């Protein structure tokens, strides 16, 4: 058979015709392509370079990629369990349909692999990575390989101090923001949260008003609907009660979301009470699946219920989506990563492995990852690849466009 080049050589140059599509059609086509292809197409011409590099195009591409139900547009990011760390990625489609000998791509990242990754937050394909004991912060896009080291927040060192982060997009101001929370508490259950917010557009931190009588979960905040969310314990002087605290990134004001009435959990308890790891003891955490805020209710070594907020902060909005049974051989820390539209399959991380639970057969299957056989999977997350830059519209891009 003739190759494409051989076929071209048989046609006189003056008969070769390259279609001149309208710009709108070109944008529509390019907006549906994977990031890897778009990075290559930046070399086609100056006009394509300018187009693909623009923030308007990256937003259009992200909107289409996020809405697309084709699982090949979403990736799974995998972190090895032991130091030095390695990072891998693969498509969500291949993870679910090639459960044995899954082929993954090793990623290069800008920090020292011997440093511990202390926290990860995700927004629009852009990751906030907290590295090491001194909380060095990186913004990193694994699809474009671009990264930015955030300026140090100059936080004061507190005794018995927990640090948690949130990360999200302020659409009104076209700005990505990082929230840093230092939780301070003592033996008398007095809680305070010292809060700072970083703006990518201004590349600076500012101090917010202290949030009193509250202890924020050490888990990274969950971004959804323009707000970052945390599980928070409050102290009213007689008892401790839990709810979900949200921070609106546009007006930088706090709000509260109610919890559902899930089994076996009292939203308040007397001061001094403690929880023990007895069979069925409930521990809950916040998460995000697709476009929905979720609660993962882990009844220790019994089951894990997944609640989904179907309509944001509406009355009666919490719906129990699926219940995962505990079986021997599955790790005690189950974190759902993705649920199929019909709820038949759940992709999850059990602390050391990636697994798929099939509710129709009530069966767990391990996803075999050839490159990570001896390492174990320390963490996993699903993300939509994007062209979003950790520099927004900074000068960093201008030499490339000239």
Automatic annotation (TrEMBL):
The UniProt record lists the keyword Membrane: yes
Signal peptide: none
Name the record gives this protein: F-box domain-containing protein
Alphabetic keyword roster: Membrane, Transmembrane, Transmembrane helix
One Pfam match: FBA_1
High-level lineage: Eukaryota, Viridiplantae, Streptophyta, Embryophyta, Tracheophyta
Bilayer-spanning residue ranges: 76-96, 116-140
Keyword Transmembrane helix: yes
Residue ranges constituting the F-box domain according to the UniProt record: 15-61
